[in-house]
Amino acid sequence: MLKIGLIGFGFMGRMHFDNYVRLTEEGHPIALKAICDLRIEELKDGKADGNMSTAREVYDLTAYSLYDDLEKMIANEELDMIDIAVPTYLHAEMACSLLERGYHVFCEKPMARTSVEAKKMVEAAERSGKKLMIGQCLRFWPGYEYLKEVVETEQFGKVTEGYFYRGSGAPKDWFLDEKLSGGCIVDMHIHDTDMINYLFGRPDKVSTLGRNVLPGSGYDIASTHYFYKDAKVINAQVDWTLEGDFGFYMGYRVNFERGNVVFDGSGVKVNPNDGAGFTVELSPDAGYYRELVYFLDAIIQDKPIIICTPESAAESLEIIEAEVQSANAEGEWIVLN
């Protein structure tokens, strides 16, 4: 039985909690034993804000050991794996410490506040021999998994163009402090940058236009072009200033030599050049669930992490930093070494 501790009980912590409950009910050999958050007494009776709904309004945590201090949790619990769902700027130090103390670690995205910190996490995992995976959930999201498949198999030929977009209203608290979150580019846009890196490999250079709207938050709106030597045209845009009734949206449109594939956030439509369009049958499970299934199975079966290696997540953060550098230089092309 794999014993798990969860650190952080905000929106993503609750999303992970919901999935651990589901996995336990499904008979997976795991047990969520403890939850730690500085504000656990306050958070356990309230609802966390996020861009998607969690499974519960109020959480009954009576079955779990609750802590407001990480060291207390480690001292009092026998755990095999720890799930980190705390603010970005805390990821690296916490993950490195836990890996070196012998725990497997699942860490929310972004991997770290900087790529230098991310590389330290990679090195800590290598030294410890423990498994580390970052929650780049789009790699496990059914609509994006399908896109990965058709890119690799070239079912519709090679990619000629791709457009990725995500947008929402502004988050709150530490997210709006660029020094802590990195702003919209680091926190939100990294989903699409990571997917572009996963689908097409590291771009040769990037050019980004960005705009700040909310004081102190860094770039709140951004658009990036990714240059590849084979001349495919790839762009990704992000905006977390979409207020009113907008809600949340993520999607893509990718054109191939013999068709195009469009994801509108809920379903995937394929439009072959020489035939009728069709809707793809996808798994109903979200990436949040599927990434945990994958990571837990890798631990239990002692299998290597392949789909989302920490090295690849760190590389995506390097690309993000080049995008910020480009935005600072009003769209100047930044070459990735």
Record the SSE blueprint.
Blueprint: E1 2-7, H1 11-25, E2 30-36, H2 40-43, E3 65-67, H3 70-76, E4 81-84, H4 91-100, E5 104-108, H5 115-128, E6 132-135, H6 142-153, E7 159-168, H7 178-181, H8 183-200, E8 205-211, E9 221-227, E10 233-239, E11 248-256, E12 259-263, E13 268-272, E14 278-279, H9 287-300, H10 310-328, E15 334-335
Helix pairs in contact: 1-9, 4-5, 5-10, 6-8, 8-10
Short key terms for the protein model shown above:
single chain, alpha/beta, 9-stranded mixed β-sheet, 10 helices, oxidoreductase, Gfo/Idh/MocA-like_OxRdtase_N
What does this structure look like?
The strands form two sheets. A nine-stranded mixed beta sheet has the order 14-13-12-11-7-10-9-8-15. Strands 3-2-1-4-5-6 form a six-stranded parallel beta sheet, sandwiched between helices. Helix 5 (115-128) packs antiparallel against helix 10 (310-328) and helix 6 (142-153) runs parallel beside helix 8. It has 337 residues and is of the alpha/beta class. The protein contains ten helices and 15 strands. The protein is globular and about 60 Å long. The model has no long low-confidence stretch (mean pLDDT 95). It is 35% helix and 25% strand. 43% of the residues are buried. This is Oxidoreductase. Keywords: Oxidoreductase. Residues 144-260 form the GFO/IDH/MocA-like oxidoreductase domain.
Rg from Cα: 20 Å
Q: Main β-sheet, in a few words?
A: 9 strands, mixed
* Alpha-beta classification: alpha/beta
Give the strand order of the largest sheet, numbering strands 1, 2, ... along the chain: 14-13-12-11-7-10-9-8-15
* Helix-strand topology string: EHEHEHEHEHEHEHHEEEEEEEHHE
Q: What's the mean pLDDT score? A: 95
Q: Please report the distance between the alpha carbons of the first and last residues.
A: 44 Å
Shape: globular
Q: Approximately how much helix is present in the residues? A: 25-40%
Number of extended strands: 15
| Quaternary structure | single chain
Low-confidence stretches: none
